[in-house]
Amino acid sequence: MDHPKFVIEASEAETMAEKLGLKSVLHLLPTIVRSSQKLSRVPISNFAVAAAGLCADGRIFVGVNLEFPGLPLHHSVHAEQFLITNLSLYPQTRLKNVVVSAYPCGHCRQFLQEIRGAPNIQILVLQNDGDNDKLDQINGCPDDDRDASFKPLSYFLPHRFGPDDLLDKDVPLILEAQENSLVLDADEINENGNLCNGFSALEERELVSAALEAANRSHAPYSGCPSGVALIDDQGQIYKGSYMESAAYNPSMGPAQAAVIAYVAAGRGGGYEKIVGSVLVEKQGAVVKQEDTVRRLYPYKYYCKQNIFYKHFIGLNVSGNYCYIKDSGNYMIRSSI
Ligand SMILES: [Zn+2]
């Protein structure tokens, strides 16, 4: 595959498998993983990881690892987290099989626990020598070479701590419909637009609405602090990222990273300097706040270079980052500058 993608429709996957003479779409996953490793953005480690997930409806989703120079390493995104976040952009999908180019780390094994039925997700780790790339042992699963075949997540994380330990069974989990019922007070939004850099009031309202929608789709049952981020690029395209919590807290996916994943997964390519504005929606007084991370992840020096602002939005020279924060029932607009 010359141009790997982050979402492959079922019909396309079937055609690809057929052309390659493979037994099934499942056998296509290693090829997709290998070709997708080039999509990772790993300037610190230079260790490219890719993961491909096959869903019940036949679609294939891809994830890669992302690293952010200048930031602490815990802001990094792993391929499996990217994959799940990518999946979350398409609600009501059921993940069946995952193939990954390196062993899932502890965080990723834990993060996967947030999916309903997680212990039964089948995982295959490709070997460095490529010996199992053809998945000859999919059906055989020989006992003497267990890692060369699909194994359930319960094999990789046998003694699990997860949602079952903290939540009622009817609480929606990751990849299930969420509704947090956050509402913005329209009166708090400047009719003339609050964002700078040449955004129109219409673009701003769309960006705010996108961030609100992302916050309302956030999975935050453990803290009760849902949040969402929306980014806009220099072409006016908007990308949404929802906060997704883990029962173990640390592996949680922040909305700032989730929005970057949406940007990368959209496949425009190129650097992050194309991101020229962002909006965060979160509750004021929340015990889990994302504002600091948003500021860190989208500083002008890295994501939003001022010369790009001047180039694309003539005559304006101020950042487009704003936080909308709920205050006693109303949302207040606060510049993050
Ligand atoms: Zn990991």
From TrEMBL:
<dbReference type="GO" id="GO:0005829">
    <property type="term" value="C:cytosol"/>
</dbReference>
<dbReference type="Pfam" id="PF08211">
    <property type="entry name" value="dCMP_cyt_deam_2"/>
</dbReference>
<dbReference type="InterPro" id="IPR050202">
    <property type="entry name" value="Cyt/Deoxycyt_deaminase"/>
</dbReference>
<dbReference type="InterPro" id="IPR006263">
    <property type="entry name" value="Cyt_deam_dimer"/>
</dbReference>
<feature type="binding site">
    <location>
        <position position="108"/>
    </location>
    <ligand>
        <name>Zn(2+)</name>
    </ligand>
</feature>
<feature type="binding site">
    <location>
        <begin position="65"/>
        <end position="67"/>
    </location>
    <ligand>
        <name>substrate</name>
    </ligand>
</feature>
<comment type="similarity">
    <text>Belongs to the cytidine and deoxycytidylate deaminase family.</text>
</comment>
<dbReference type="GO" id="GO:0004126">
    <property type="term" value="F:cytidine deaminase activity"/>
</dbReference>
<feature type="binding site">
    <location>
        <position position="105"/>
    </location>
    <ligand>
        <name>Zn(2+)</name>
    </ligand>
</feature>
<dbReference type="InterPro" id="IPR002125">
    <property type="entry name" value="CMP_dCMP_dom"/>
</dbReference>
<dbReference type="Pfam" id="PF00383">
    <property type="entry name" value="dCMP_cyt_deam_1"/>
</dbReference>
<protein>
    <recommendedName>
        <fullName>cytidine deaminase</fullName>
        <ecNumber>3.5.4.5</ecNumber>
    </recommendedName>
</protein>
<dbReference type="GO" id="GO:0046135">
    <property type="term" value="P:pyrimidine nucleoside catabolic process"/>
</dbReference>
<comment type="subunit">
    <text>Homodimer.</text>
</comment>
<dbReference type="GO" id="GO:0042803">
    <property type="term" value="F:protein homodimerization activity"/>
</dbReference>
<keyword id="KW-0479">Metal-binding</keyword>
<feature type="binding site">
    <location>
        <position position="78"/>
    </location>
    <ligand>
        <name>Zn(2+)</name>
    </ligand>
</feature>
<keyword id="KW-0862">Zinc</keyword>
<dbReference type="GO" id="GO:0008270">
    <property type="term" value="F:zinc ion binding"/>
</dbReference>
<keyword id="KW-0378">Hydrolase</keyword>
<dbReference type="InterPro" id="IPR013171">
    <property type="entry name" value="Cyd/dCyd_deaminase_Zn-bd"/>
</dbReference>
<feature type="active site" description="Proton donor">
    <location>
        <position position="80"/>
    </location>
</feature>
<dbReference type="InterPro" id="IPR016193">
    <property type="entry name" value="Cytidine_deaminase-like"/>
</dbReference>
<dbReference type="InterPro" id="IPR016192">
    <property type="entry name" value="APOBEC/CMP_deaminase_Zn-bd"/>
</dbReference>
<feature type="domain" description="CMP/dCMP-type deaminase">
    <location>
        <begin position="202"/>
        <end position="317"/>
    </location>
</feature>
<feature type="domain" description="CMP/dCMP-type deaminase">
    <location>
        <begin position="24"/>
        <end position="143"/>
    </location>
</feature>
